[in-house]
Amino acid sequence: MIRFPLKSVLFGLTVVLATWVNAASAQTDGFGDALKGRVETTLRPDLMIDTPMVSMGDVFILSGERAAIPLLRSPTPGQRVSIPARRLQSVALKYGILWYNTENLDEVVISRESQVVMASDIQAALEDAFLEQGIGSSIEVRLTNRNLAVHLPTDERPDLYVEDLHYDARIDRFDATLVVGVESARRVRVDGRAYPMTDVPVLVQNLPRSDVVRAEDINLIKIPSARLSASVITDTADLVGKAARRSLKAGQTLHLTDIEEPVLVRKGMMVMMTYEVPGMTLTDVGRAMAKGSEGELIPVLNMRSNRTVRAQITSEGQVRVNPKPVIVAANR
Predict the structure, then answer these.
(1) pTM of the shown model
(2) Torsion from C-alpha of 42, 45, 46, 52, nearest 10 degrees
(3) pLDDT of residue 37
């Protein structure tokens, strides 16, 4: 069972204006002596009801015992009911209430307030139900009826439960029963599609070629797992610290071919060569004959001896030569 807090939304009321059929004076024809000792009144400007029963005081501006006289049952939450204006006049008159209908209405519309379980609330509850049943680590639900809304009385605790959840992973379809509200416990059958999702790192802003990706450059977005190819990077750790092989755009999925280890030494760059032997460290200056990243071996021309040796890149502009360097070539 899932408990889901819901927001309360109040529905509005409109009084339907009708055709002008009679003059105001004609509305009182035939009432005769019934007008004597009666109470004249007007409609309330806002005919929004929040109780199971509509009283005279809910419709007319009244006080005292007349205001408490029951008129009719309220419509269901979120719905409205129309009363013919002449019928309302007749019923009111029986209780000594005179309404002249100076607005010349054909009917009076009474609406009932409600708190609404929106489609977004239902989707969130269903997604939690999928996770509770161990169906994927992240699911996105899309209802067949995207405008679905369930109305409850405003004083009812708006809990939402999911029952009888069935999912066919072959076609990504589901159906379920929702139990909405505590007292009314309305059961609503829903269906739709459910897609397993994967968190994918993307850039928050464009990244120029050769720039290194930092943790703050990354944002996670959810993408349907079925749409991801094997080359798409899904682990942030595989992205942070890597350099862009080409200009990369924000918000797009990144592939392994989009990144590389940062280039610490570029071809033709002057580098510091370090020779380490027991008890002694020697340094010299050389020229890189190829580009490379940390840990890679590249050919370096020793500017003093004019010999090319293989050296390992240790940091930007720094290489280490083996104690017994292998001579690649001698320049004449």
Answers:
(1) 0.57
(2) 0
(3) 56
